[in-house]
What does this fold into?
Amino acid sequence: MFELPVSPKAMNSPFRKRAADYLGSQAFIRLLAILAGGFLCLLIFMVSISPKRYNLVVGMVPDQTIAAHKDVIDEVTTRASRDAAAAAVAPTYHYQEGITEAVIANLEAAHAEMVAVRQYAQTLPEFSSRRTYSQDELALAHDMINLVAFQDFQLITLMNASNEQFDEMYLALVPAVRNTMQGNVIQGQESSAINGIMQLVGYKTNVSLLQNVVLPVLREIIEPNMVVDAEATELARQDAWNAVEPVVFKQGQNIVVRGEGRVRENQIAMLNSLGLLDDNTVDYAMYLGAFGMVSFVLALAFAALKVLKPSVAGETRSIILINLVILISLALSLLTKEIQLIYLAPLALPFMLLTGTLGPVPAIIAGTASTALGAVMITGTGSVISDWVNLLSIGVFSGVLASLLLKSNYQRSYVLLVGILVGLANFLLLFVSGLLTSINLQSAMNKGLWSLVGAAVSTVLCLAIQPALESAFNLPTPTRLLDLTNPNHPLLRRLLLEAPGTYHHSIIIANLAEASAEAIGANPLLARAGAYFHDIGKLKRPLYFKENQIGTGNIHDNTDPQVSAAIITSHVREGIAMARHYRLPQEIQQIIAEHHGDSVVAFFYHKAVKESANGQLNDEEFRYAGVPPMTAEGALVMLCDTIEAAIRTLNSPSQEEIVTFIDSLTQKKIQSGQLINAPLTLKDLQIISSTCATVLNGVFHERIEYPAAPDKLAPREKLMAQLQQLRKSPAPPAKSTVAPSHEEPARDSGKD
It folds into this structure.
């Protein structure tokens, strides 16, 4: 079958759709937040490690002291020392065979040429020991000698010598040369061998012949029999060159000292190597190392966060907060470096801030990453390795200690106490470390005191910054939840004054939810705060809810059931709007939105069914426009809301009756699918039922009946007392006409 070709555009459309979906997703936003935070951390880190540059040349008097920010080799001094060591190595020689025989042969050949010249001279007319030779005669004599380059005066001495003198010279020269060549004539020391031969021959040779004939002959024929082994000598010199240790200036060691001498070539070379001169190019290796370190530390931290605390790693707000806290810590560390008080760095600050906002696990992970980067930043220039070790150890130790101490107590005064304990721990750790390493006691004391002050600075900054972060990020932190549950909160004050029934109902639910949350390991403060605010939407129309109809009739008796259902369900939507207006945390807004799930307002639904013509009606118009709770705290508020409303129908119940009744209500919530998204187990539900029963049992405890007092009241006073008693007593419960699978609290339906 023929198929139409698919265009590339059509083929790419699924990919483009997936790409577009990803670019608009929260995962992409989290990735951008991580990359942006990492870039800013890298920027601060690079600013910190970038060295200050100086304008220096050879011969200048330095106007400031410059120390090495990392180990650097003095290349100039090292090269000079190595060259001197290599030059001091004696050459390696080896004996060369046949040299002695060659020298004797050359001596004999030279003797033959000299004899021929003498014979030529003796054939000339008027020959004598004082004869003068013409240039042509000397030129002819020169042509007869090829081995030795005699000068004219030397050649004349040879030609005018007597036979006896010449023979004595040769007879003395041969054994002297032979004996010398049988020894070691070292290459480069041939003149010493010639001088030795001259001394031996000089005793039996005419002085003129010795200087003018013997010396030129020896210079031409003497060769060394101990010649230099070039390869072995070069290896020996290379070994000597390599054996010289490089001259290294350690990190923190002064290269130049202010006003001390003049700048030398080796100092300029070291400053140039460290990138401390104005005319330097960029030190790409240093910045590449900085990029690698920051990337590795942050990637490792976020990977650990993903494994140990995925709920935090999957939330954009938390990622931005962690990045912001790390940036604040690094910036403050950079400031302490600039003022040269590195132990004042507030390394414990990220641990304290994040423990109070996100919890101890994210705090320890992010705080350790911040401390690792901060310690490198602070000690990157001008310090020694011991400072880096000290800062890293006290930063991690004190930070973990602060997180563990703050994880279960959220009071501001307790934060101050933790800051004091952290400072003392820093001081003791540095002081003991100083004693172990035998450094100056005064130095150890100073470092410890500055670290103590640094812990105090961390505490003050934590108390100052944390409320701002809580407000800016709208975080449900323990301290903020405590503030929100203050009865003086505007919304709670309005509930108390405008909807007192809803207010007291919320107080009871808060007690039930908090106790249950503690029992199952959920967040009790969030459960309490969510319970306080879950019904704030009823402030819009408080009298449409039965618990607020004190001394008045039920408005719903004369209202269409669909209208009543719309009014009842709208309190969720209106509660979310109020929560946003008052900037309640998102977690509390979620509890408000989910505390009824998508359940049906069963009372009005059944009322509408009865009033309908055919007895059938779509229940979608009577459902809450929400979803079943997705958090443990939201599920707790839903269950406690149902339990508190329904338990009012019981008259002086026993402990067993309360437990049985709560179990039945929980089963109905399960059957209706309202707990399908909640992270609760069956064991958790059993614990919740037991906890709620225990709390409610205190509400329904038996009271002692006191004997009636004598009736001494006047008729009018007696009547007023009876009316007041009637107002205090609860109204009789209405008979339920709601199907079991959709049972709703009577207070929402307007029926008590």
